[in-house]
Design goal:
The structure holds 2 protein chains of 2 kinds.
Chain A (H helix, E strand, L loop, with lengths): L7 E12 L2 E7 L2 E3 L3 E5 L6 H9 L6 E6 L2 E2 L5 H6 L2 E4 L11 H9 L6 H15 L14 H14 L4 E5 L7 H14 L4 E5 L3 H7 L2 E6 L2 E6 L1 H6 L1 H8 L2
Parallel strand pairs in A: 4-9, 4-10, 7-8, 8-9
Antiparallel strand pairs in A: 1-2, 1-3, 1-5, 5-6, 10-11
Chain B lengths: L2 H18 L5 H26 L8 H18 L3 H23 L4 H21 L1 H4 L5 E2 L6 E2 L2 E2 L3 H24 L1 H18 L4 H27 L1 E2 L7 H13 L6 H19 L3 H15 L4 H8 L6
Antiparallel strand pairs in B: 1-4, 2-3
Helix pairs in contact in B: 1-7, 2-7, 2-9, 2-10, 2-11, 3-4, 3-9, 4-9, 7-8, 7-9, 8-9, 10-11, 11-12
The chains are: A alpha/beta, B mainly alpha.
């Protein structure tokens, strides 16, 4: 594996996951640098969601180690990994439907009471970025699907994570919504690192700095757009023989 | 956002005025003293069920932990009321810590069953150790032992004010929780615990704290009940006393601060009036509960909050 440089934010060593004999993730050595936008692509069932779940601790690995921000976090419980700076947004929208937009973001910020003013400011700031500021007091369950996805992203941003993992964030969004989304992610990269699972190749090609391809639980290719587009193994994995 | 504080302090003031202006008859004064103590129990239950979304079927265990800690220490060890209350408080914290730690290894239906089983164990222990607890028959705490700061707690007026004091403290505490960031996390766990976890909250720890707060408030209710009404019996540890707070909370509105009070008043007087009409009063009670469930699924206050006043905590 590549040398671990100073600006490496997260890397894994032989990370593996077995589900009753089925190896969903196989000996993955993965590395992501600070302020990078990395796309993780691969056919359905390649193990993408499983892999990122191993990173944030939702699923316990069978083997291997995860290092984040210079620490071995392999044995950290989920909440400790998240508090340590890993943000995760769900593939299937997972927000607090009965709470208002404001409360959803406030929960993500995780500040103690007493600093209400600065929290309000932060909430307004984040909601303004995703364009939901005028809906701040609306029940999030009453939002349209597109807006719920944006709220999910706003919650991820509000956590101010060092690494933001986005699991298929553009799924089910309309074209203008996707354009807005691409712009948002690009603007994030100055302050955070983004790991993006995405099926929409247009999104991947236009915002990712680097692409990793996962196939049957293994990383079969890694590199910039051109390298990936021209890689015969990738083409085979996607298109078949 | 002071209007929520206003209505809750207003409710306390109203209960105070009803007494000081002499509006209560002796009968209703006695009823309300009882209702207020039972509401404290409901408030305790609501912290766990209404706010955190954990349905326990064994809260009689916590109620009777306080009840028996206070009652037995007064009866056997000649503790005064202050000492008994402190003991009951500490014992309730301990019991809820241990039960919470064990029961929270389960979720959902298993959690309901495990809490029910722990509660049944406690109930059967009370019966089994009848030499100490006097089992079903129970213990009567003498009037001479029910004195606190030279106030005779068996006097109906003093008893009412004592009940109101305990109630007020617990209500305000509940309101504080509901408005705090801690309470917001509890609600987040109720609404979507997976998401709460993925926002970096130690969900297990929050749940444990909720059980401890809920169990301790329930224990305080039990201790107050024993001391104010002078009776400590095994029936308070039996299954119906685990179901009552659930009913009060559901009727009044789960996850509303004033819900348990409204539910307890409603239920108490429903039974009271229905039993004037017929011996088979549970039929009337049952029909009334069905109607509320059908037409106000969120409970009386919960429905009002949903339709008109979303700011009610």
């Amino acid at each position: 594996m590549d040398t671990i440089e100073k600006n490496t934010l997260l890397y894994t060593e032989n990370l593996s996951k077995n589900f009753q004999g089925i190896q969903a993730v196989k000996n993955v050595n993965f590395k992501i640098n600070k302020n990078e936008i990395r796309a993780l692509i691969g056919p359905n069932g390649a193990g993408k969601t499983t892999f990122v779940s191993l990173l944030c601790g939702r699923i316990k690995s069978t083997n291997g180690a995860v290092f984040f921000d210079g620490k071995d976090i392999s044995n950290f419980p989920v909440y400790k990994r998240i508090s340590g700076g890993i943000g995760y947004t769900f593939q299937i929208t997972s927000i607090f439907l009965n709470l208002t937009v404001y409360e959803n973001v406030a929960l993500a910020i995780k500040e103690e009471t007493g600093k209400t003013n600065s929290i309000d400011k932060e909430i307004s700031n984040v909601l303004d970025k995703v364009g939901l500021l005028d809906r701040v007091n609306q029940r999030s369950g009453d939002l349209s699907y597109g807006h719920q996805r944006l709220l999910e992203l706003a919650m991820g941003m509000a956590q101010r994570p060092k690494l933001l993992i986005l699991d298929e964030p553009t799924q089910g969004l309309s074209d203008p919504e996707i354009d807005n989304f691409k712009f948002l992610i690009k603007s994030l990269s100055s302050s955070t690192t983004v790991l993006l699972i995405e099926h929409n190749m247009d999104v991947v090609m236009s915002i990712a700095d680097k692409i990793s391809v996962l196939h049957f639980g293994e990383i079969i290719a890694e590199g910039d757009k051109k390298t990936i587009q021209n890689d015969p193994i990738v083409q085979k994995a996607y298109l078949g023989d | 956002m002071k209007r929520d504080l206003f209505i809750h302090l207003g409710a306390i003031a109203l209960l105070f005025l009803l007494e000081i202006l002499g509006i209560f008859s002796d009968y209703h004064q006695g009823n309300f003293a009882r209702i207020l103590v039972l509401t404290v129990y409901g408030i305790g239950y609501n912290v766990l069920f209404g706010y955190t979304g954990l349905l326990s079927l064994g809260h009689a265990l916590f109620f009777s932990a306080g009840l028996y800690a206070a009652g037995l220490s007064i009866y056997h060890l000649d503790y005064n009321v202050g000492q008994a209350l402190i003991l009951a408080f500490c014992f309730s914290v301990l019991v809820s810590l241990v039960i919470g730690y064990l029961a929270l290894r389960t979720v959902g239906v298993s959690f309901m069953i495990v809490t029910l089983m722990f509660s049944q164990i406690a109930y059967l222990c009370i019966l089994y150790f009848g030499g100490i607890t006097r089992g079903d028959e129970g213990i009567v705490i003498q009037q001479s032992s029910r004195v606190f700061l030279s106030l005779d707690l068996s006097d109906p007026t003093i008893r009412y004010y004592s009940a109101l004091t305990v109630f007020s403290f617990c209500l305000v505490f509940n309101l504080w929780i509901a408005r705090s960031s801690f309470g917001r996390v509890l609600i987040a766990i109720r609404e979507n615990s997976d998401r709460a976890l993925m926002l970096g909250y130690n969900v297990q720890l929050y749940k444990l704290l909720a059980v401890i707060i809920s169990g301790t408030i329930s224990g305080i209710a039990g201790a107050s009940y024993g001391i104010l009404f002078g009776y400590v019996g095994a029936s308070f540890a039996a299954v119906p006393y685990s179901i009552f707070p659930l009913l009060w909370v559901l009727l009044g509105g789960a996850g509303t601060v004033l819900g348990p009070l409204i539910g307890a008043i409603f239920m108490f007087y429903l039974i009271d009036y229905a039993s004037d009409v017929t011996d088979a009063y549970m039929i009337i009670v049952g029909i009334a509960l069905l109607l509320v469930t059908l037409f106000a699924r969120r409970g009386l206050l919960g429905e009002l909050r949903y339709r008109f006043f979303p700011w009610i905590p």
